[in-house]
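Batch manifest, entry 17 of 40.
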Amino acid sequence: MADSKAAEAIRMPANPQSAPQKVLSWIKKSENLLLVLTVFGVIFGVLLGFLCRLAKPDLYTIQMIAFPGDILMRMLKMLIIPLITSSMIAGLAQLDAKKSGKMGSRALLYYFGTTMLAAVVGIVMVVSIHPGDPSIKNTISGAGAPHAHKTVSTVDALLDLIRNMFPENIVQACFQQTESYYVEEEVATDNITDGNTTNTIRIHKLRFKDGMNVLGLIVFCIAFGIIIGQLEEKGKLMVEFFVVLNEIVMRLVFVIMWYAPFGIMCLIMGKLMEIGDLSDTLAQLGLYMLAVIAGLAIHSLGTLPLLYFIVTRKNPYVFYRGMLQAWLTALGTSSSAATLPITFRCLEEGLKIDKRVTRFVLPVGATINMDGTALYEAVAAIFIAQMNGIHLDVGQIITVSLTATAASVGAASVPSAGLITMMLVLSSVGLPLEDISLIVAVDWLLDRIRTSINVLGDGIGAGIVAHLSRFELEDDALAIEENGIEMGNVIDAYEGEKAKTPTGEAPV
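Output type: structure tokens
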């Protein structure tokens, strides 16, 4: 009898968990709990931001509410330099020059290809919706146009991009960039009939402006990492140093991530509370915002997933689910660079992308892969042309798409950088630069959305490059293992050797 009951108990399935219990068990995992908190941080930030607007707070109150968000931005930016240097050097040191060259060419092909596709999608949307109306220009105030007075030259901007790739002082590159500017000087000239006359000429000069030169740091780290890899045994100690440094930085990122939901909530609340007449702005620029957001939605939910599926034959939306934490952080911080630590963690720990790929692809992508920015600039340029009653022919539209692609590469991975590079796009087809001020009122929202699309594009790029490079990475891992130099797992090997010693102390 007892045996029959035991057999029956074995045949009976264990009590299945109810739906609420499954949800609770899923949330109890730290990475899932963090994601849920971040989602609630964004939702509460929007709701509380609109509610607090009803109280009409003064500027000081808004600053105090946004202060925790400012602390989050500072902590994330603090980690950018150690994260880029340690990740890129450690990653490239484990690849030979040939493999890293192939990986880099694949990444660049993806970056420029998807950026061009984004610009084309933006042009199609703005031409189809046609949000520009000359009456808008008469009703929206043109006050507060940032940088509209600056003389813009596309050639100068591209030359500055190349100059910043090779900084003359690597320490200075951590906080300053090179920028071209012009000064007007009067020069005396001899004239036979009128005697001495003066002519005003424009002289080109260079100066340093505040802002991290990420591109210069990346170029230096690429060269540094490749050279260390070529040193083999001589460079092993240096590689171990950067691997351990990267592990330390990632642990700091994990700590900061638990503060991120609260910081993101405060950032969104502060931004919503500081804008002026929201309803009037939406009424005037609603179609323009619709064109930008629709273009970004098509690119992020159609173009990028389709490309990922064609290359990898995997479900892109499962990949997106793993990127959700980084996407929400980008939405709150409005900075690709500040989101970079979170993106590393999502790809390496959540999606299990090879660290040698993420350490190389992500820092470069955060600097030059700006799909959302290219789309936004193409839409804004044609929108400004429509407001001024200017018809752009096919050649000019192609110029807009090419210039938007090139300008987005030079856009800094900081908030509202697209407004600055927008001047290059406008000047390429002779549109008035002062009209940038007309779209500033809604840039706070569009900047967040396009930055989040930039981050998604970086993640998809890392996934595609990892898939295309998988066989080379496997061969490289086998070669490293045969030589007994598993540099990517220095910490695990170190702990293993430590456990083997009788006293449990670190091996000498």
